[in-house]
Amino acid sequence: MQTQQLSLFPYLEAESATRPPDFIPIYEPWLGRREEQYVLDALRSGWISSLGKYVTRFEQQFAAFCGVQHAVSASNGTTALHLALHALGIGAGDEVIVPALTFIASANAVSYTGATPVFADVDPITWCIDPADVARRITPRTRAVMPVHLYGHPAPMDALNSLAERYNLIVVEDAAEAHGAQVHGRRVGGLGRIAAFSFYANKTITTGEGGMLTTDDGALAARCRMLRDHAMPPEKRYWHDEIGFNYRMTNLQAAVGVAQMERLEEFIERKRQIARWYCAGLAEIPGVILPAEAAGYTNIYWMFSVLVDAPFPLSRDALIPALRERGIDSRPFFHPMDTLPPYRAAQPRSVSLALSRTGLNLPSSPSLTEDQIAHICATIRSLSAPVQHANGARQTSPQSPISNLQSPIAL
After folding, report:
1. Based on the domain organization, do 205 and 354 belong to the same domain?
2. CA Rg, the chain, in Å?
């Protein structure tokens, strides 16, 4: 199948004149003729806004994929999160516990409702929210907990659901980065009260922009549908009992989504194959810690991410430009929410802070070839040469809280 590769970063386009022809970007969507066919079909039908057959098809396909009864499309992943929280009645005076290490949209969606995001630390192995720290941060004002399946690894949903049952909390999954990830054979998106996904251009499947809510709660799904359309009830046009939102997905976007759904299983397996190539190529490089896949969990490796720590001769921040000079793009981990000006705390969560300073996302497009992965791994290995030792032993840094981690890889 012929594919069209689209740049996600305009500034890279501006640099294309000086970029090596074999430059490897951090991510490119995998688009083919089927996406073009469906978009043209939607275009020719005249149904190009939020009504049309592809919206319904996409919602039905995605609900079935996640193993839930209902899916509600939205304009993007952030609006999906906000819509879920608002529909659940979360607002001023409430608290929602979110991981400190995540993209800012998770915390912002809470703030949009008037509620307060409370930051829990993350597990040093899986990088997902730590249930023990969640338990420490529950107060009488806590209404919900929002686990994020970070970089494709599922959060510890069994432990979080147990906490939620004990304290009468709502679990809202932020599954923006984890389409198809599993916990004991069950896919994310059906493991809490409601879940939100993103279809931004760098996600496992894309609609350019777009989002989806998934739930088994029919009444909650109906409320989300009503609220996303200006809170207009379907049985009474242009009547509004409350303030709603325009959070609808277009039929054109959904057409791309339907085409992408037809290849989602292929994309997931491809990402796991890419992870296998990376794990083999980066094995036993001192100071490079590979991502985890905990027992009973299926990591989809949305981003193939590593930690870079002593004794690797370059810091993470020095490695990024070194790779770029050699034609390889990369990205640092997210800044912890409690280090950013809107949410800054006096004492940021320690594990999140350590991971954010050492975490590195490597090129993760599903279209990457084995030769490209081998080149990336060989480049990183060459940059580690000054600290290679004959016995291959890893030297650790006592100052770093992550330097002694051993990630369980089970690909």
Report:
1. no
2. 22
